[in-house]
Design brief:
Strand 13 and strand 14 form a beta hairpin. Strands 8, 9, 12, 13, 14 and 15 form a 6-stranded antiparallel β-sheet that branches. This protein starts with 12 loop residues before the first strand and ends with a helix. The chain contains 7 helices and 15 strands. It folds into 2 domains: 85 residues, 2-Layer Sandwich (Phosphorylase Kinase, domain 1); 157 residues, D-amino Acid Aminotransferase, Chain A, domain 1, CATH 3.30.470.20. The chain has 286 residues and is of the alpha+beta class. It is globular.
């Protein structure tokens, strides 16, 4: 099975992200989801088999499911003639737009960095929460906890006031409202298909004077999913990137480049979890 870590198309490269390569395609953009894996904002030299296909096809699924909540940048997953065959299944044509410079995080359950903060201060991103929550507890209501969009290094959580200063009050209110609506829709769908959507991240852009959903949506890269049958008995079993993070936390890596080498069993099990998430959420084999 071919693992695609790099693309070198005869098109103008607009942006090379941690995972996606974006090219000009006339008035539109070609977004390619590679098999690159990043964790703690560091890209690994090993690719994850079929990861790009999962991200691309699952995003397309969610874009189509949520178009009634907010318009998105998705146009098609059909590739024009003349492009390399490996792009099929891992690429989409999207609208060109300017990004809203805010990471829009919604948390419905307490885990990850939110759990660490809660243990120390009883808060999540500075928001006070009830006492007595356990790791994995459902929050009284989903929290919108935005952060900066860092080109390099780590994103930083910001207050509502700071977020409004970055993108403007009107756009902030729009992305907050739509992020919560999207999360609640995804949470319900995931629950009905055997998964708990713990938290997720959305990105937005401006197109023709209004805000739309861009990048990816509700994927195992941008979300935490737990198996519901395990969650019901108190076990947080992830079908997302958390498996890799958990492995890395047990090593002595300082979370700075260069990334450590990933054992084959970690690579293959990460791939299995991504494929399982796709199958459970869509009801289809990839």
């Amino acid at each position: 099975m071919e693992i695609i870590r790099e693309t070198n198309l005869d098109l103008t490269l607009i942006r090379k992200g941690k995972v996606r390569d974006t090219y000009e395609l006339g008035d539109e953009l070609l977004m390619v989801a590679t098999d690159r894996m990043s964790a703690f904002d560091v890209v690994f030299k090993e690719g994850i088999p079929r990861k790009g296909e999962v991200l691309n096809n699952l995003s397309a699924f969610w874009f189509e499911q949520t178009n009634n909540i907010i318009e998105n940048h998705f146009i098609s997953t059909d590739m024009p003639d003349g492009l390399p065959g490996y792009l099929q299944g891992r690429s989409m044509i999207v609208k060109s737009c300017g990004p809203v410079m805010l990471e829009c995080v919604v948390r419905g359950y307490i885990t990850g960095s939110a759990w660490k903060e809660y243990q120390m201060h009883g808060t999540v991103c500075g928001i006070e929460l009830p006492c007595g929550l356990d790791h994995g507890s459902e929050l009284p209501e989903p929290l919108f906890t935005p952060s900066t969009k860092a080109e390099v290094g780590h994103d930083q959580n910001v207050t509502e006031e700071h977020a409004e200063q970055i993108i403007g009050k009107d756009i902030y209110e729009t992305v907050k409202k739509k992020s919560l609506e999207l999360y609640n829709f995804g949470k319900k769908h995931a629950f009905e298909h055997g998964l708990v959507l713990a938290d997720t991240k959305f990105e937005f852009g401006e197109h023709d004077g209004h805000v739309i959903l861009i990048d990816e949506a509700l994927t195992p890269d941008s979300s935490r999913y737990w198996l519901k049958e395990k969650y019901d008995i108190g076990i947080l079993e992830s079908v997302d990137k958390q498996y890799l993070r958990d492995y890395l936390e047990k090593t002595k890596w300082n979370k700075e480049p260069p990334a450590p080498e990933l054992p084959e069993h970690v690579v293959s099990k990460t791939s299995e979890r991504y494929l399982l998430a796709y199958k459970m959420l869509t009801g289809k084999e990839l």
